[in-house]
UniProtKB/TrEMBL annotation:
Domain of life, source organism: Bacteria
Reaction it catalyzes: tRNA(Gly) + glycine + ATP = glycyl-tRNA(Gly) + AMP + diphosphate
Subunit structure: Homodimer.
Protein name in the entry: Glycine--tRNA ligase
Length: 503
């Protein structure tokens, strides 16, 4: 069973994974901070991606470009003109909505429309809308049969209907403005002049940093088609309605690859399929169960003019199945645009084919924060295990894959006031720390210490006891998921862990 979003938010706050940004000032909508454990988790997710996509592949290289770039880039890419979401305002409550996330339904009785209901989210609404419609029928004392509710999003509203659809905040008709386009890019000023000449943007995606460096990488990197450029970094979008915790925020991180291929019409469908599979495999490799990942193929009529195909890998989040990773075939649109705007050639000379062309591109684009939310959702479990006295006790655990777990192992001396135990445990701790991030905990009963590590997803706990020192030079290693314990020689601990963590 899936955890609720609330359970995840609460655990993240309680154990120091994720905090609301600027919390002491009442928070700031759409911004989140990663605490001590969250910072480790995030680093591990990014490192795992970089290792699989850059280090373990011969034909992909890395890049780290700036967040603020020449503003012309965003004209070339189409973001200045078209990176918009439709927005509506409620004139009464001053609340803002994304029109395509706001729903309404005509209430029809025996074929006559007696009014409209509106609801804010498509998840809850069918039942809610039906209830509101029945209420409306009662109030108006209308006889007859209520017809099926058919929810549409607000962008599909007829201009004549704008004035009639009630605002979801106030319930009053006529309080919503018609939808208008809202550009999601954050603006900033570069340089000392206050006028428009310094107008610039925080990047809304990392991809354009890759395209504008295409020539640099080609000229210096000894790359041959096909090859990829990968980048991890911050992106900013002034989302109208940030929601669902770190799923949709205003500052987030992306892990993107532009994979350059030859323009041959036979090439892209194969590369596209390979990338969809590679992305899925990577999700599984960091502990996301394959059955929580789906494929949402965008229908041809919804694709932008230059796009040959887009598939989203979806994940079953606590609030529904939603996009996690977009894999898009963008043709040569971006490089062609940059060639046009910069007047620099973006052609690549293909040694094999002895010809020049502007390469096409397949773009897998993944959000770091959405991946973390997926990892947390998949890892969260509640079960019952025997406590120190053998009685069943509820526990919360995060079944992180060792690759992403903030701590790979915890080391405990059985008692904190026995210097021999503490010293021996401390030596092991220092030894293991050279390889991994290791937790140290001396306080409380061992059972309590296990519980604390379970809750933050540490896969193994090693305890040094009196037998370790006085008798057998062995330690107890306890497994987070099964709670089973094994006893192994102290000098084999590192090897034992290595097999399980890296293996
Ligand atoms: P949506 O339709 O949900 O707004 P999108 O289709 O605009 O998303 P893309 O532009 O394809 O998203 O961005 C690529 C990836 O970046 C997404 O799959 C997602 O993982 C991540 N992402 C995009 N917007 C956000 C955001 N506001 N907060 C967190 N991650 C995001």
């Amino acid at each position: 069973t899936l955890p609720t979003l609330e359970a995840l938010v609460t655990l993240c706050k309680r154990r120091g994974f994720i905090f609301q940004s600027s919390e002491i000032y009442g928070g700031y909508a759409g911004f989140f901070d990663y605490g001590p454990l969250g910072a480790e988790l995030k680093k591990n997710v990014k490192d795992a991606w970089w290792k699989a996509m850059v280090h373990e592949r011969d034909e992909i290289v890395g890049l780290d470009s700036t967040i603020i770039m020449h503003p012309e880039i965003w004209k070339a890419s189409g973001h200045v003109e078209g990176f918009n979401d439709p927005m509506v305002d409620c004139k009464e409550s001053k609340k803002r909505y994304r029109a395509d996330q706001l729903f309404f339904a005509p209430v029809r009785v025996d074929g006559n429309t007696i009014g409209y209901v509106s609801v804010e989210e498509s998840g809850t609404m069918q039942a809610e809308a039906e209830e509101m419609a029945a209420e409306m029928k009662r109030k108006q004392a209308v006889q007859g049969t209520l017809e099926a509710i058919e929810l549409k999003d607000y962008t599909e509203a007829d201009p004549e209907e704008y004035e009639l659809i009630p605002s979801p905040a106030t319930g009053k008709p006529g309080s919503l403005t018609p939808p208008r386009q809202f550009n999601l890019m954050f603006e900033t000023r570069v340089g000392p002049l206050a006028d428009a000449s310094g107008l610039s943007y925080l990047r809304p995606e990392t991809a354009q940093g890759i395209f504008q460096n295409f020539k640099n990488v080609v000229d210096t990197g000894r790359v041959k088609i096909p090859f990829g450029i990968a980048q991890i970094g911050k992106a900013f979008r002034n989302e109208i309605t940030p929601r669902n915790f770190i799923f949709r925020s205003r500052e987030f991180e992306q892990m993107e690859i532009e994979y350059f291929i030859d323009p041959d019409e036979e090439t892209w469908p194969r590369v596209y399929r390979e990338w969809i599979d590679t992305c899925k495999e990577w999700l599984v490799s960091i502990g996301i169960p394959a059955d929580m990942v789906g494929e949402d193929v965008h229908p041809a009529e919804k694709l932008s003019h230059y796009s040959k195909g887009t598939t989203d890998l979806t994940f079953t989040f606590p609030f529904g199945t939603q996009e996690l990773w977009g894999i898009a075939c963008r043709g040569n649109f971006d490089l062609t645009q940059h060639q046009k705007h910069s007047r620099k050639s973006m052609e690549f000379f293909d040694e094999g084919r002895k010809e020049k062309y502007i390469p096409h591109v397949v773009e897998p684009s993944l959000g770091v924060d959405r991946t973390i939310l997926a990892v947390l959702t998949a890892a969260y479990c509640e079960d019952e295990v025997p406590n120190d006295k053998g009685a069943p006790e509820k526990r919360v655990l995060l079944k992180f894959h060792p690759k992403v777990a903030p701590f790979k192992v915890a080391v405990f001396p059985l008692l904190k006031n026995k210097p021999e135990l503490v010293e021996s445990a401390r030596n092991l701790y220092k030894q293991l720390q050279r390889r991994w991030n290791v937790a140290w905990d001396v306080s409380g009963a061992i059972g309590r210490r296990y519980r604390r590590q379970d809750e933050i997803g540490t896969p193994y706990c090693v305890t040094i006891d009196f037998d370790t020192i006085e008798k057998d030079q062995c330690v107890t290693i306890r497994d987070r998921d099964t709670t089973e314990q094994v006893r192994i020689p102290l000098d084999e601990v590192e090897g034992w862990l290595n097999e399980r963590i890296e293996g």
